[in-house]
Specification:
With 675 residues, the protein is an alpha/beta fold. The chain is 26% helix and 36% strand. The chain contains 14 helices and 34 strands. It has a nine-stranded mixed β-sheet with strand order 16-15-17-18-23-22-21-19-20. The chain has a six-stranded mixed β-sheet with strand order 4-3-2-5-6-33, sandwiched between helices. It has a five-stranded mixed β-sheet with strand order 8-14-13-10-11, with no helix packed on it. Helix 1 runs antiparallel to helix 2, helix 2 packs antiparallel against helix 14 and helix 10 crosses helix 11. The protein starts with a helix and ends with a helix.
């Protein structure tokens, strides 16, 4: 209580005494015993009334006992019934709830976990994924200021999330291992890496990691199948000292579209679990047949360099003509490269403008800049009849497509006529000019895009030197050819931007949750949160149709789909009220990710227990686990004191006392005739 409040209370007491004394002693001639009683009543009633007006704050200290929390995490995944442990888990939960001593010592909180943590209502063992690390971290966060040991009932086999073995848990963890702890001989495909996309008639690599659990030497065969036919086979040998193999298969894309494959390793004798011997994967094969036309006013080494780099991709072909010799049709080409254009290019440029076609201009010392400046191409150059050397500066902020810095600043300079470049249309600079060691904002390579038309300009000749320099640095032309390939791919594509984009996988494991997200924009290509999106899913075999709405989450539309049976599916995502649709397909395999394990992972669980300060127990040691928890003195009841502040005016009974005192005073005065 503050000093000022105490002073107010003292003044209130003195004032109450003074008023009562003046009324019943000072101004009264005959003093009786009744006056003393009235004096006391008046003093107390006035004092309490003034005390309510002062309204001091009363502090009250309360003590509260807090018993430790026992967090029980139950693995609710399909691997539990795979090991036939459902009854054991249910019996343990029942025994825990019926243990009077544990319930007296601990506040027991029970959870289940699969892909995420949930409060235990009932166990179904139908989760298709296991994330042990997330469950432990979530409970740690929930009980961060409490004494809260954790019982973890699981087989220790995790399918998603961070490795839980060395997790930093603030609470001791007591794993209770369920599942078969006997180790059997087992072969499995642990990992399969493949690109989602490939170009037709190109080779694409498939990298597979095989693992072996066992001591004896075994021989087997690894194969990849497509439509039931073997397209790759390799013999593999394992032993106690050689338990893993990495196999790389280079497959050829022969058919356009989404292609499904199966990787399989042949089972060995006495192998208990063969479900982890097979993995399905898919590759979308793209037919990117691109024809490029190079028209030039002069013969130059750059033409050969561009041809070699472009044709390093087998899906691209190049035709080269002097401008005077070309009699073909531009419509047959996806991209036209104009090398050192002059006034002779007037008809070609007019045709490109009319057709809204994409093109790439390479300038040089023979370029007619007076002609170019009149064509309204989005750039001009105030060129004089002097040449200049231009080095390259890579622009890290280039956003049009992904391009790494392949050492542009180390390449020999390009040559062009000297002059200031002015860009008059929206553009992006991939390379800027370095003139005699001075970095400038002037563009060396710039791209333009307007009304679904794309074009680019390179202000300088001599890129044949760049390809040679790149080879000297890397002993390969790959980096330079990829640089030209990226530019050609961007310029040759006439793909329009879609207002509706859908992100999905092409292959899902059985009973897994299928997550799809969609991005929808208005006509200005800005995200539109006002729309309603719906997905229609059709089973290709049964023709069963499922319709579900999307949910708006931040700046995308998302949906989670469950309980679809294995098979092939097609889908249509539609914007309700708009004629905008997106189509796709996916496949749900029969492979159950939770059934890939042959035994419980007791080694990892033991390390987890040791690192957190807990102890590992097996399913036949439930009584030992209960005893450890009951006898461990680290799990004790804590006492917390809390200070509560309350205003005196909230004590309503004081007001009733004041009223009572004033009433008693009035009746006494009335009775004795003092009124």
């Amino acid at each position: 209580m503050q000093i000022t409040t105490i002073l107010y209370i003292i003044i209130a007491l003195l004032l109450s005494i003074s008023v009562a004394f003046f009324q019943y002693f000072y101004s009264v001639k005959s003093k009786t015993r009744i006056n003393t009683l009235l004096f006391v009543l008046k003093t107390f009633s006035l004092f309490l009334l003034l005390l309510l007006l002062i309204n001091p704050t009363i502090k009250n200290t309360e003590l509260k006992n807090s018993i430790p929390v026992l967090a029980v995490l139950v693995d609710n995944s399909k691997s539990i019934p795979f090991f036939k442990e459902e009854k054991n888990v249910e019996n343990f939960i029942e025994a825990l709830n019926n243990n009077k001593s544990l319930n007296e010592k601990f506040l027991i909180n029970e959870f289940t976990f699969g892909s995420s943590l949930r409060v235990l209502d009932s166990v179904s063992f139908n989760e298709s994924e296991t994330n042990i690390s997330e469950a432990i971290l979530a409970v740690n966060e929930l009980n961060k200021d409490k004494i809260a040991p954790i019982i973890l009932i699981t087989d220790g086999n995790q399918t998603i999330g961070n490795d839980y073995e060395f997790i930093n848990s603030k609470q001791p963890i007591y794993p209770l291992v369920v599942g078969d702890t006997i180790k059997y001989r087992d072969l499995r495909i642990s990992q399969l890496n493949v690109n989602k996309y490939s170009y037709i008639k190109n080779k694409f690599p498939v990298e597979v990691l095989l693992n072996y659990d066992g001591k004896e030497k075994v021989n087997t065969t690894f194969s990849i199948y497509k439509n039931g036919k073997s397209i790759f086979t390799q013999k593999v040998q394992f032993s106690s000292s050689e338990k893993s193999k990495t196999i790389t298969a280079n497959l050829t894309s022969t058919k356009e579209g989404l292609q499904y494959y199966t990787a399989s390793v042949r089972k060995i004798a006495d192998e208990k679990n063969t479900k982890n011997n097979t993995k399905n994967f898919s590759v979308e094969v793209i037919n990117e047949q691109t024809k490029v036309l190079i028209l030039t006013s002069v013969l130059h080494p750059d033409i050969g360099t561009l041809t070699k780099s472009i044709e390093s991709n087998k899906q691209r072909s190049v035709d080269v003509f002097l401008i005077d010799k070309f009699k073909g049709n531009l419509i047959n080409y996806q991209l036209v490269i104009l090398n050192q254009p002059t006034a002779k290019f007037i008809s070609i440029l007019n045709d490109l403008k009319k057709a809204n076609s994409n093109y790439f201009i390479v300038s040089g010392v023979n370029t007619d800049w007076k002609f170019i400046n009149k064509q309204q191409l989005g750039f001009t150059k105030k060129a004089i009849n002097e040449t200049e050397s231009y080095g390259a500066i890579f622009n890290d902020s280039f956003l049009i497509y992904q391009q790494k810095n392949i050492g542009f600043d180390q390449f020999p300079p390009l040559k062009d006529k000297f002059g200031e470049v002015v860009l008059s249309k929206e553009h992006q600079k991939l390379l800027a000019q370095n003139i005699n060691g001075v970095e400038t904002e002037q563009p060396l390579l710039a791209t333009f895009e307007q009304n679904n038309k794309k074009w680019a300009v390179l202000f300088g000749e001599g890129i044949w030197k760049w390809r040679s320099a790149s080879f000297l640095s890397n002993n390969s032309f790959q980096d330079f050819d990829e640089f030209i390939g990226n530019l050609v791919q961007y310029l040759a594509s006439d793909k329009k931007r879609n207002r509706l984009e859908v992100n999905s996988e092409s292959l899902y494991s059985a009973n897994s949750t299928i997550n799809l997200s969609a991005f929808y924009t208005d006509k200005n290509y800005k995200f539109d949160a006002r729309a309603s999106l719906e997905i229609t899913i059709t089973n290709s075999e049964t023709r069963e149709i499922t319709k579900l709405p999307f949910s708006l989450v931040n700046t995308s539309y998302q949906i989670e789909i469950e309980n679809l049976i294995s098979g092939d599916y097609t889908y249509k995502v539609a914007v309700i009220g708009q004629d905008i649709n997106k189509y796709g397909k996916f496949k749900i395999t029969t492979y159950q990710i939770e059934e890939q394990f042959t035994n419980a992972n007791s080694e990892k669980l033991e390390k987890l227990a040791k690192n957190s300060g807990g102890i590992l127990f097996y399913k036949n040691q439930i009584d030992d686990l209960s005893k450890e928890l009951l006898e461990n003195t680290a799990f004790y009841t804590t006492q917390k004191s809390t200070i509560k502040e309350q205003n005196l005016i909230d004590w309503k009974w004081i007001l009733f006392i004041v009223i009572g005192l004033f009433t008693a005073e009035w009746f006494i005065r009335k009775y004795y005739g003092k009124i």
